[in-house]
Amino acid sequence: MKTRLVLAVALVGLLFSFQPVVAQDCSFQLGFKALRDLIPDVVEDCLENEQHDPETGMTRQTTSNGQMTWRKADNWTGFTDGERTWINGPEGLQQRLNSERFDWEAPMASAMTTQRLTLEQLRNAEYLLPLLGEENTAIQLEDGERSIAYGEGATERDYAGIDNDTVAFGDLDGDGFVDAAIVLFTSGGGSGTFKYLVAVLDRDGGPVQAARIYLGDRVPVRSLSIAGGQIVAETVAHRSGDGMCCPTLEVTRDFTLRGGELAERQALVIESPLAGETVAGGVEVRGTTTMAPSGDGLRYLVYDASGGVIGMGALPVEGLEGSPGTFAAPVEFIAGEGGPGRIEIVDVDADDGSALARTAVPVVLEATPSMYGAQAMEETERPARELVLEAPLSGATVGADIEVRGRTSVMPFEKNLTYRIYDEAGTVVGESYITVEGDFDGPGTFTRSIAVTGATAPGRLRIEVRDVSEADGSLFVSTWVEVWFAGVP
Q1: Which in 31, 177, 188, 262 has the greatest CB count within 10 A?
Q2: Beta-strand (E) ranges in 204-315?
C-alpha cells in the first residue's frame, strides 16, 4: 500500500509538471514578430523569449502551437507546428510540409542540419509509456532499460527499454536540428513484449518525447530510418494464423509527425500478379496493406487498354483493423480482346466513398473465351513480347537506391532496355539503360540498382522499363510500377 501511495503521489507530481506554463513577460521581436503578425492564429502566444545558440547560429522561440526558428547562415525565418512549416522568405510568406523543401531553400537547409542528440542521451532519457495500469507513466531509463517494482511487498515488476538499441536520427520538425526515432518496449515479465515507435525531438540539445504509436506484441523491427522528415520502419507483423511468437509478414511502414501525433501512411502493395504478366479472368491477386481496413475490405477495378472498367469487386483482408494485413482473392473481368490493361486496388472510406489509398499494376489481359469458338483463346495463348518487372513491387516503399529486376521473353537490341523515372507531376527525374543477361536469340533477365538523384522529398514515383526499336525509336513493349519514395536522408 505504501509503494502504491508513493507511486500515486509521484504520478500526480509528474502530471502537474507537464502542464504548459505561459510566460507572462515574453514577446515576439524583429523577424519573429513580423512572421507572427502574418499568421497570428497559427503561431498563437509565446511561451518564452527567443533563445540564441551562438555555436550553431540558430535562434528559437517556443509558442503555444509550435516553434519559431531563425538561421543566421542564410537568414531563414520560419514557424513549424510539427506538421507544416510557414516561411517568410524571398518570395514572401510560403507554406509547405516539414518533409518538403522549396527549391530556393533546399541546398542550405540540408547543409544546416545540426546533430546534438546522442544515443547515450536517448538511452538515459525519460519517456511516457503505458505501464502500471496507466496510459502515460513516466519512465526514466538507465543505460537503455528500467524495471519498476510494485504490488504487495514490491515483488512484481514491469519492464521498459529501448528495443535492441533500434534508433534512427534525422530532422523530424524541419528546424535544422537532428531529432530521433526509437523503438521502445514494455513488458510485465510474461511472454508479451509490446513495441512502440517513439518520436523524440531535439529541444535545446536534449531529447523530448513528441509522440508514440503502438507497433504490436513481439513485432521485430528490422531497421529504422528517417528520410525527408518521415520515419520508415522495416517490420515483421503477424499474418492471420501466425503464433504470437513467430510473425512472418514483412511490411514497410512509414510515419509522419503531425500535430503532436505519429500518423501512419496507408500503403497497399501488390505482390502478384507482377507488372507486365499475362493474366486471365479469375487470376488471384495477392498483397499486403499496412493498415487493415474496416468494413468490406478493399475494392478492385480492372481496366482495359482504353481505360474502360471491365471488372470490379471486393477484396477481403485478413488482419486486425488498423494493423498490417494481407489480401488474396480471385479477380474477375471480361475482356473482349487481349492487350494491355491494369488492376487497381483501392482502400475506400466507408463514410464518404473517397479513396484513402490506391495502387495499380499493369498487366497483359487475355481475351475472355467466346462460346462461338476457340479462335480468341488461340490468338491470346502467348504474347509476342513479355516484359515483366519482379522488383520493386507496385506500391512498395523505396529509398534513394532502387533495385530494378525482371525478365523479358525476347532479347532486346544490343541487350539493352531503357528506363525512366517520373515524379508525381509527370516530370522525368531519371533515365538510362539496363543491360539484359541471356542469349541473343532467347529470353533474358535484368537487374540494376538505380540511384534516385532527381527527387529528394517523399512522394510517389513511377518507374517505367521500355523495349524500344533502335531502328526508328518505336516502342515494342513497356511496363511500369508506382512506388512510394521515402525521400533522401
Answers
A1: 177
A2: 206-217, 221-227, 230-237, 249-258, 261-264, 268-272, 278-279, 283-289, 298-303, 309-315
